[in-house]
Design brief:
Blueprint (H helix, E strand, L loop, with lengths): L2 H4 L7 H12 L3 E2 H8 L3 H13 L3 E8 L2 E8 L1 H19 L1
Antiparallel strand pairs: 1-3, 2-3
Amino acid sequence: MGIIDKLNKDFESRVRLGIMSILMVNDWVDFTEMKTLLNITDGNLASHSSALEKAGYIEVKKEFVGKKPKTSYQVTDLGRAAFKEHLLYLEKLMKS
């Protein structure tokens, strides 16, 4: 098995890389801020964040602030470890 085979397929998308990168350095990030930082559509963020949540890499918190719904994201311990490993293999791939 080569280094490239060790890269995590869950992080192949540029949007998922972006979501994970932002969450690695921020505690909770809300939907609007994430969408703005990544310059993506609501649907794009919703589908990619849903896939990362199903994999157990991020936690999604839905709440109401006043009468408005608010969705926020946070990386999980599993997500942090998996993303660090992914970055490690990317580094190894670049050095090979």
